[in-house]
Task: inverse folding
């Protein structure tokens, strides 16, 4: 028996050596990820070092091996089956040939990025009385040095050794029994781990936190609903601010020159009954610009004042510099769940461009400051009121992408509608506090869904690629002239970034709820997407 | 694992019947259901294809058949799926949700129907020609929905509307598609499923077809029902009989 085991190991080793290039054999996988590396992540496109690829969150890769000319030859290289049968929303990181995949409910594995072979696994022990509104999801980790940082459903932040999966520290960010949870990938800024909170359906009071990467000690907390000492607290009737939601459940972006972190906030609570929280409800449904060192709010832009449709501004801010009306501007691009696309000045928060990118019936338009001009008669009612977008939004948390080569902004859009209801509901700690609901009027097949390419200078539609509604996939743009995306009917596809022409697709057999990424090992480019509870990786011959 | 199963069985054994099923309990259960379950299952409990949450109004459940089974699912969720439980809630509130979910399924005793089910059955197979397109208990045509348990899914008023105005609600599965192939030939049939790149069709002769959209000259959707209105050929009392028959087609739990 003993001899048999030794023989087997030797043969496996020989086979592995035979398949590897000389560089792979001579270089170990993984090396620590310094802040300098994160700062210049676009300079090492063979890695995917953070949730949105780079600090500007463009989801644009400079890799060109897979291009318009050969993308039709992509083939499956390996698949990793997540043991828990739940929908995977993960965007893995790739660091020098090692891929870190988060799993439902709050686990992470490290695998070889060429084969999917397992290095280690970390299973986070969870209590059995979680408060989860919308699935047991986790969307990814952040990395600094040789430590990973992961959010968990019991509202903890966990630091994990990237080489072994051992826990370095594990802190409680908030009390899960009060409805707090965590699903989003953190963002590393210098030596801080910046992380948000979920629970907008449970009457929480949202915040954005920063923790020391080494110790897990909290450095600052910015409440997304200001307290009574702040004048903006008056945008909440009575004590409604205490249970007003405004969570921060997706990852933000960072501008190192301005030292500003950009983060979106979610819906005010209760979601649909706005009568109990009259006022603009600052800073719900907003883009926040936050000083990275102090956590002070530099500026905000509220997309949907007094939201009564659950249209969280939980989208990833995308940053670029562009010439606008003859002036060079540092901008932030944002396609919002409320149906409008925005370009903002990210230095000041000034509204520059705003136009619908999907069907919306709730607003006549935006005024000169970007504030929506509401259409009368579009509020939720006891008997139901049909409004576009649907509660799921014209888009949602799934990542958009931007290509500096085409200078186009790509977003998955849904021209849906739903019937919105209002209900009286008392707040009870730890229970859902939504004050109504929404339900479908027609089957989703009646509605239109598309990948849309917008010109961020004016929000104009350049092209669209129709897909079956309603896709919850993120997008990826590459210097190979491609846009990758997924669909609810289980396809993974590549489009021509300039024209929207479909160049390749494959049926993966389950819904895509994640965003694609690309990386390279030993000079070979790979493209990865999670569908259902499987992570698929494709490459060329 | 064995001990866990034993605990579950013991819980089930405590109360097979719901101790909290009064009208007030149902109302309380509705509130908790709408707050905790409505986002996925819909405020009306009819489910949501997008979230994968099943219709809870037809009296048939994937993971439970008894009240005790429903209690366990609502409290603990279903492992390995997106269904999470409300284990933080006290037992009486979980039972109230069970009572509410049970109330969503129309029962035969809830209605005093004017029609005669036996006469309706004869009409279904005879003058009404319903059997040409609809299967009941394994027999019938394939061009319309299988109606073997339609009484679990539709109440008598909904069934009457279905008969009188078939276009009131047409599920995408029963839309008609007209496909023109590259050679100009035309295939028309019911839309079995469609995705971004392909579509599958059953033609009028019950043949199955698969088409890649990019290969087609055109693809046309007709979102109305090919079924004629019952009022075109049947009297009011005959329609009453058909409603009674269709509502009797049930799988009793």
Result:
């Amino acid at each position: 028996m003993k001899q048999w085991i030794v023989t087997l190991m030797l043969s496996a080793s020989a086979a592995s050596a035979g398949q590897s290039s000389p560089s792979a054999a001579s270089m170990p996988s993984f090396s620590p990820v310094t802040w300098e590396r994160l700062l210049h992540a676009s300079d090492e496109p063979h890695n995917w070092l953070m949730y949105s690829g780079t600090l500007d969150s463009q989801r644009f890769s400079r890799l060109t091996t897979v291009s318009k000319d050969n993308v039709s030859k992509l083939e499956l290289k390996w698949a990793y089956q997540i043991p828990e049968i739940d929908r995977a929303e993960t965007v893995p990181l790739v660091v020098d040939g090692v891929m870190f995949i988060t799993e439902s409910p709050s686990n992470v594995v490290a695998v070889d990025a060429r084969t999917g072979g397992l290095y280690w696994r970390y299973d986070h022990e969870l209590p059995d009385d979680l408060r989860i509104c919308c699935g047991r999801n986790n969307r990814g980790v952040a990395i600094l040095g040789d430590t990973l940082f992961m959010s968990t459903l019991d509202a903890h932040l966990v630091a994990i050794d990237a080489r072994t999966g051992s826990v370095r520290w594990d802190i409680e960010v908030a009390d899960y029994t009060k409805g707090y949870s965590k699903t989003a990938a953190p963002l590393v800024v210098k030596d801080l781990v910046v992380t948000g909170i979920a629970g907008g359906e449970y009457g929480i009071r949202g915040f954005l936190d920063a923790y020391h990467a080494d110790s897990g000690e909290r450095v600052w907390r910015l409440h997304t609903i200001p307290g009574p000492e702040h004048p903006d607290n008056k945008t909440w009737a009575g004590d409604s601010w205490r249970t007003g939601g405004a969570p921060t459940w997706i990852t933000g972006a960072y501008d190192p020159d301005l030292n500003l972190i950009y983060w979106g906030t979610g819906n005010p609570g209760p979601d649909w009954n706005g009568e109990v929280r009259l006022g603009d409800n600052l800073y719900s449904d907003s883009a926040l610009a936050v000083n990275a060192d102090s956590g002070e709010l530099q500026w905000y832009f509220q997309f949907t004042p007094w939201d009564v449709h659950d249209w969280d501004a939980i989208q990833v801010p995308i940053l670029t510099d562009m010439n606008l009306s003859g002036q060079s501007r540092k901008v932030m691009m944002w396609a919002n769940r409320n149906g409008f696309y925005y370009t903002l000045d990210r230095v000041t928060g000034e509204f520059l461009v705003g136009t619908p990118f999907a069907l919306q019936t709730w607003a006549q338009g935006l005024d000169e400051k970007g504030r929506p001009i509401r259409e009368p008669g579009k509020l939720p009612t006891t008997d139901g009121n049909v409004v576009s977008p649907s509660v799921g939004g014209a888009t949602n948390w799934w990542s958009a992408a931007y290509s500096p080569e085409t200078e186009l902004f790509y977003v998955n859009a849904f021209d849906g509608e739903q019937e919105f209801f209002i209900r009286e509901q008392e707040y009870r700690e730890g229970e859902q506090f939504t004050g109504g609901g929404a339900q479908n009027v027609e089957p989703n097949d009646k509605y239109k869904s598309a990948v849309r390419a917008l010109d961020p200078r004016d929000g104009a539609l350049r092209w669209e690629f129709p897909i079956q509604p309603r896709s919850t996939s993120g997008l990826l743009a590459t210097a190979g002239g491609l846009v990758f995306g997924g669909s609810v009917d289980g396809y993974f596809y590549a489009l021509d970034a300039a024209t929207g022409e479909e160049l390749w697709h494959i049926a993966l057999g389950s819904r895509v709820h994640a965003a694609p990424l690309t990386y390279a090992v030993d000079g070979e480019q790979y493209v990865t997407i999670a569908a259902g509870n499987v992570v698929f990786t494709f490459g060329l011959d | 694992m064995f001990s866990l199963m034993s605990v579950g069985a013991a819980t089930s054994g405590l109360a097979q019947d719901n101790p909290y099923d009064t009208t007030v309990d149902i109302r309380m259960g509705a509130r908790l259901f709408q707050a905790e379950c409505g986002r996925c299952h819909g405020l009306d409990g009819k489910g949501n294809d997008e979230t994968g949450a099943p219709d809870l109004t037809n009296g048939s459940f994937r993971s439970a058949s008894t009240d005790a089974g429903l209690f366990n699912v609502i409290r603990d969720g279903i492992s390995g799926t997106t269904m999470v439980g409300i284990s933080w809630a006290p037992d009486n509130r979980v039972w109230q949700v069970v009572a509410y979910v049970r109330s969503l399924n129309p029962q035969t005793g809830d209605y005093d129907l004017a029609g005669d089910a036996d006469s309706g059955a004869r009409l279904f197979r005879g003058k009404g020609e319903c059997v040409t397109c609809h299967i009941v208990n394994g027999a019938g045509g394939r061009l319309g929905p299988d109606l073997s348990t339609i009484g679990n899914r539709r109440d008598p008023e909904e069934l009457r509307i279905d008969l009188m105005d078939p276009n009131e609600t047409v599920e995408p599965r029963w839309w008609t598609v007209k496909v023109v192939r590259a050679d100009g030939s035309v295939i028309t049939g019911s839309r079995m499923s469609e995705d971004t790149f392909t579509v599958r069709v059953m033609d009028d002769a019950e043949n199955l077809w698969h088409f890649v959209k990019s290969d087609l000259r055109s693809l046309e959707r007709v979102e109305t029902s090919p079924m004629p209105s019952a009022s075109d050929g049947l009297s009011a009392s005959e329609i009453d009989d058909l409603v009674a028959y269709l509502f009797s087609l049930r799988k009793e739990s």
Remarks:
- The interface with chain B takes residues 84-87, 128-136, 177, 201, 392, 421, 423, 425, 430-434, 437-440, 443-446, 466-468, 470, 487-491, 493, 505 of chain A (CB under 8 Å).
- The radius of gyration of chain A is 23 Å.
- Residues 4-25 of chain A have pLDDT under 50 and may be disordered.
